Amino acid sequence: MRQFSAIKLADELILPLVIIVMTRYLSVFLAALLAPLNFSIGVSSSFHTLLFLSFSDKNQAVLANFISWMAVATVLAMYFGFVLFRGLHTASEQLHPKYAQDLHKRNLDFLVIDQNETRHQTIGWLAIVVLVSCLMLYDFLSVGLPAFSLGYFLGLAALLIGISYPVFYRGKN
Predict the structure, then answer these.
(1) Using CB atoms within 10 A as the burial measure, which of 50, 51, 74, 166 is most buried?
(2) pLDDT under 70 in the chain at which residues?
């Protein structure tokens, strides 16, 4: 088994950070298409966690923030869930050769992953979950984010952290 690499972890953190930031802003822009949200893009911002967007009304800001965090929670659950699925079910060290051959025939080779790669990805996504939890808690305490969204995300975070436990301790005695 290869050693832990900080450079590899930094590499695994880049894509999740970009995905989360992109989701946060795109969900606000999509919410503005569906609901009458008045905001301007500039240097000033209504939130410390949503930079460069200034809302004219506090209720609109809370609505946009709620929609944005719920979209982030959904995307985080999908991507981190996929990483956990690959780590728990298609790790190359524990994959039966017949199953690997079946995946190859179906052109699903991308599902087979090295255990070391899985650990780095899981650590990266866990760091993102903790970061997003802290940012949501900050918004909850400072701006007035609805308690439902904070509770929903913290429950989801606890579930993802609990599921990720076997990825680290698989094969260890």
Answers:
(1) 50
(2) 1-2, 45-47, 170-173
User: Which string of DSSP letters, residue by residue, matches 131-171?
Assistant: HHHHHHHHHHHHT---HHHHHHHHHHHHHHHHHHHHHHHTT
pTM of the model as a whole: 0.82
Q: In whole angstroms, give the CA distance from residue 14 to residue 105.
A: 32
Tokens 């993102």 label which residue? 128
| Nearest in space to 53 (alpha carbons), one of 150, 143, 131, 129 | 143
CA nearest 16: which of 120, 104, 114, 116? 120
Q: Tell me the HSE value of 142 on the side-chain side, using a 13 A CA sphere.
A: 13
Contact 140, 151 (CB under 8 A): no
